[in-house]
Structure formats: structure tokens, C-alpha cells
Amino acid sequence: MSARTIIDKIWDAHQVRAETDATPGILYVDLHLIHEVTTPQAFAELRARGLGVRRPDRVLATLDHSTPTLPAAADGTRPYASPEAAHQVAQLEANCAEFGIALNGWDSPHRGIVHVIGPELGATQPGMTIVCGDSHTATHGAFGALAFGIGTTEVGHVLATQCLLQRKPRTFAIHLDGRLRPGVGAKDLILHVIGAIGVGGGTGHVIEYRGSAIEALSMEQRMTVCNMSIEAGARAGLIAPDETTFAYLQGRPRAPQGEAWTRAVAAWRELASDPGARYDREIRIDAAAIGPTISYGTHPGMVTPIGAPIPLARDAQEAKALDYMRFAGGRALTGEPVDVVFVGSCTNSRLSDLREAADVLRGRRVAAGVRMLVVPGSVAIKHAAEAEGLDAVFRAAGAEWRDAGCSMCIGMNGDIAEPGQLVVSTSNRNFEGRQGPGARTVLASPRVAATAAVAGRIADPDAVLEDAA
Amino acid sequence: MKPLNRVRSRTAVLPFENIDTDRIIPARFLTTTERVGLGRHAFNDWRYAADGAPDPAFPLNAPEAKGCAILIAGRNFGCGSSREHAPWALLDYGIGAVISSEIADIFRSNALKNGLLAIVLPPDQHAELLAQPGIELDIDIAASTITLPDGRVFAFALDGFARHCLLNGIDQLGFLLDAEAAIGAFERRADPHRPSLENPA
Ligand code: SF4
């Protein structure tokens, strides 16, 4: 067989039926992740047609988007943002019960953001096809899985048949070579990449991130990179599995155990793209040239090195974006006063992200007038963070320490900013109104976000943290 | 889904690039458990001013945009969230076709599954349509053509299977259910490249 990419290998291994000119292929799905927002209409469709769920054992269900991050009252009532949000959660509980799906619900120690708990449980594994009615499903690509977002109609398809009708996407290799500078992390790297290829730069493609800078990343960092592939328009993003991947997975509850583990690792080692495999597109980016990077506009392709003057608007679109953000082209954003800081989301809510933020906050205080929300990605992360005292660091600094969920990444649960407020956020989307109507979002790493909280303004961590110490 | 073979309408133009699905339907309206009724929130935060009244500056609020079923939008329409609420909202609002020079993958797939045409044209043709709001277009799905008022015809690419489903009102789940025997056989086949399937999930 000719040299194949990891994308080809996973695709080929999951074809129930190959595509033809007349019909798309039928692709088997190994793991289906579901949450309360994009499933009610799919279950209604099954019910209307008298269909069951084909493989409830291949569905991982949780509550994350509409869920409050404040604790329940003494009588057990939860502070939902609206009766509709409460109803949506109740619907998923009822649907899972009716269709025989185990739900990681309110009482589960495994509840959390769907893209955080899959890896945490070891349910996300190399070589798998993974889908979810959620565009950040690419997060799971960090493990060398082909993971992508689908719509609600397709959620119904997978529930009923465990399959999807798909045409094979094109392949796109992004090589990141060189060593990241100290204090520069995965978030800076991926923001830089999106800026380089543009928000539509990956459309129609699956990206494979390659190169020495990628190999050097931890699993948590790889997840941050793959997570934002959709922000470049790509169907998915993935990284070939290696020793780092295996070490992360070994011993997790749903990872293979014993003899099965040995066989699995042997098969996973064969997944990496063959030498000489051809991609539809390839680019190279020097990782050593990347500095702390933030967004300045209203889509994640409008990014800048933190201290650099932001570009002047080149057209009406960019002028409109700067106008919304109330930023002036030609000036750096450092010094811009900040109202809210959010550390959380499936991009940056894992233990390493919380540690990164806590390292900045330890012995310092959130500036007067700034509200800081720290929202762990899962119940397990919350407990782990509390076990090492991170919650105490956040509380002592004046930040709010919340329960797990999507929270201010999407603002569906009532965690939002006020119109006009500037939010420095570790999430993935700075779209107009994403964090509340009129709210202005600057995307950043946990380190940059925590620095903004302490300084009360956008600031370069390297400049501020030394003299503040 | 009803069979669909023609969309004929004047055009409304939203000349902005990268219109994301949060713009098309903001997240706070996603708590619905229905597919219907989202039209009144389509483009909610552009469409209504802070006091809830229609914002006259929003192009689709112009009197001449009323009733237009064809939307010409700037490049990279439908990017961002995979929410199918976006095509549901547009259809419910009365849009039957969206034309751009680039349409995000998931939005396009969701749109076609709901009978909302998502058409990609080359940049020059797209630019021409963007520049002339209100012209009458005749979209013929079987022929995959758009006829302009001056008689010129723009051809567009449409996946043959998607076209077949649109023209005949076929929903794709039926097609997958018919493949049950093949799916069962696939599940029983051991494959060393899918170790995951050997494990209890
Ligand atoms: S954290 Fe944000 S991006 Fe991630 S799944 Fe939740 S809403 Fe989506």
C-alpha cells in the first residue's frame, strides 16, 4: 500500500462502505459524545420514528453547557439561568434513561465539559472516530483520533446507526518546528497558527499538527491546540500518538487494561503518518518565533503578539470589528483596562491551566474593579485542584472559584459579562456577543489572563510579573 | 423534508465576512428543545436595538429586504459553532438559500440536511451578487444553476447525493438505516487498527 497519512489510516479503518460519485461513504463512529444542547431534537426524531439507540455503550453523555456553576441551594434547587435551561437538562436526563445511555449527570464524579471528560476517563483513544454535536470535538484529535463536530440531524444518525454519511476531507499538514520560548504555551501557538492561515484557512480539511514543537507538548497542551482547529475552519485537527499519549492514557478508567493495553499500544504505534505520505496542503511555521499572543478583533484570526501595535483596519470588516472592540488600530493593547477575566472552557480548564493561572495569582490580588471567574473543566479537575490548594490561591486573590461547566465560554448558564465590558478569556471564541450581548472578548492563555486580572489591564506577563513581585 | 427544486426570489445582502453561527442565532436561544420558532431570533443581536425595536441599520430590516428568500452573504458564512439551530433559524425566518464565496463545512452540511440551499460561487460572481441587492434570482437545483435577471447563468457545484435528497425530499437517515446489514458486519469484523472496538467502552 502506498504511504498514508494518519488521517487516511483512520478513515480507511472506519469505512463501512466506501464513497462513490453518487453517494457519500458510510463511516463508523467509535465514540459519540452528547450533551444537553444539541440532542433534544435528535432524540425526538428517534421517538417519532420508533427507533432505538444502536450502541448506547458507545455514547458518553454529560451536562455542561446550560449548567449553573454556582452550588445548589440547601433544598437541592440549582440556580439555572432560565426555566428553559432547567428543562433542557431534565430532557437529557429523561432521554438517557429512556434510551439506556449512562449519563455523567449531576451526581457523577465524572461530569464536566464533554471534551474534558472524554480524555480524562480514557474514553478518548488513538485511532478512534469520535463525533459530538459540538464544533470543539477536534480536542480529542490530540490523542491521534479523528474527531469532529456534527449537527443535530447527524447526532440522530449516529444514535440510530452508529454511522455517518461522509465524504473524505482533504488533508493539511502544519509543521511547527523549533522550541517554544519560556512562558509561551499551546494557546499562544494555536492563536498564532489561526492568525497565519486565517479563520477559513482550514475549510474542507483535517489538519495534522506535526514537528518538534508539537512533539514537545504535554497532552493537555496538545488538547488546547487541537481544540481550536475549528477556529481555522478545519473539520478536525489531530496529532499522531506517541509515548506522551500512551503515558497519559495508561491506567485511566476506560483505557484498555493488561494484555489488551499491550495490544492497543502496538496498534496505536502504527497510526503515525508514513514517511513520504502526501498531504493536499502543507505549511511550516517557526515555533521559536511565537510570543505571548492575544486576539484583538471579533474572530480568532485577528491576533497579535501581546505588546505589538494592532494593525490598522484594512477594510470595512476590520474597521467594524475594531469599532465593536473599541480598539484603535496602530496602538498596542497593553494598558487597556479589563473588567472581567475568565479562566475556563474546553480550551484551557484543565489542571495544568489552573496551575498556570494560580502561579500568577499566588501572593497577589485581583485588581480592584476586576471580576475573575475560574471554572474547572470537570468535577474531577475541581477536586484535584482543591487537593493541591489551588482554590485557596484563587479565593485569596479575590477570584470566584466555581463548579465545572462551560460557563462564560458561551454564557448559556447565566455567566456573562455586561454590554461593553472587556473580558480577557482563556476560551476559544471572541465573536460579537459570545460572552453576553455587547461583551468584548480578548482571547489569551491562562498566564496572560491571570496577569490581566492582577494588573487590571492587558499586560505582558514578562514585563509585569517581575516588577510586581 | 419536502422536495425542493427551485428557489426564486429577490436577494437580500449581508455584506459582512465571517458571519458566525453565534451571530445567526445567539447561544442564549439554544435552550429550546424544539426545531421550530427560532426565526424571530435569527440575527437577533444585529436585528434588534437595545430597546427591542428593529434596528433600521441592519440590512435585513430594510423594507426592500422583506420577504427575500435568497441571502447573499460575505465570505466564510456560518463559521464557528456547529449548532443546527442556525439553519433552523434561517429557514424559519424565510430564507431558502444562502450564497457566498465560502461557506463553513458544518453549517453547509447542516443546511443541506434541512433543505436550506448553501451555495458557493467563485469570488467574482459572488462579488457581483453582493453588489446588487434586490435582484431576482432563479435557482434551479436539478440543473445546479442560478439565472440572473439579464439571462446570464451561473453554475454551482452541488454534491450529487445532496442534490438527489433535496429534489426528492429524502432524508438521509433512511439511507443509513438501509445499510444495517453492512453496519452489523462491520461491527463483527475484528480489525487490528481499531483496538478500541475490542474493549468494553
Ligand atoms: S467550553 Fe465552550 S467551546 Fe467548549 S464545549 Fe463548552 S461551550 Fe463549547
> What share of the residues of chain A does DSSP label as strand, in percent?
15-25%
Please report the distance between the alpha carbons of the first and last residues of chain A. Answer: 59 Å
**Major protein interface:** A-B, 88 and 61 residues
**What's the number of helices of chain B?**
8
Kindly report the average pLDDT value of chain B: 93
User: CATH topology of chain B, anyone?
Assistant: Aconitase, domain 4
What descriptors fit this protein?
heterodimer, A: 469 residues, alpha/beta, Aconitase, domain 3, Aconitase, Domain 2, 3 domains, 5-stranded parallel sheet, 16 helices, 33% helix, globular, B: 201 residues, Aconitase, domain 4, 7-stranded mixed sheet, 7 strands, binds iron/sulfur cluster
Report what the structure shows.
The complex is a heterodimer of chains A (469) and B (201). Chain A is 33% helix and 16% strand. Chain A has 16 helices and 19 strands. In chain A, the strands form five sheets. A five-stranded parallel beta sheet of chain A has the order 5-4-3-6-7, sandwiched between helices. Chain A has a five-stranded parallel beta sheet with strand order 17-16-15-18-19. A four-stranded parallel beta sheet of chain A has the order 11-10-9-12. In chain A, β3 (31-34), α2 and β4 form a beta-alpha-beta unit. In chain A, α2 (40-49) crosses α5. The longest helix of chain A has 17 residues, at 83-99. Chain A is globular, with a radius of gyration of 22 Å. Chain A starts with 5 loop residues before the first helix and ends with a helix. The model of chain A has no long low-confidence stretch (mean pLDDT 96). Chain B is α/β, with parallel strands linked by helices. Chain B has a single domain (6-170), classed as Aconitase, domain 4 (Alpha-Beta Barrel), CATH 3.20.19.10. Chain B has eight helices and seven strands. In chain B, strands 4-3-2-1-5-6-7 form a seven-stranded mixed beta sheet. Chain B is globular. Chain B starts with 5 loop residues before the first strand and ends in a 13-residue tail after the last helix. The mean pLDDT of chain B is 93. At the A-B interface, α1, α2, α3, α5 and β8 of A face α4, α6, α7 and α8 of B. Bound molecules: iron/sulfur cluster (SF4). Iron/sulfur cluster (SF4) is lined by residues 64-65, 113, 115, 134, 136, 345-346, 406, 409-410, 427-428 of chain A. Residues 64-65, 113, 115, 134, 136, 345-346, 406, 409-410, 427-428 of chain A line the site of iron/sulfur cluster.
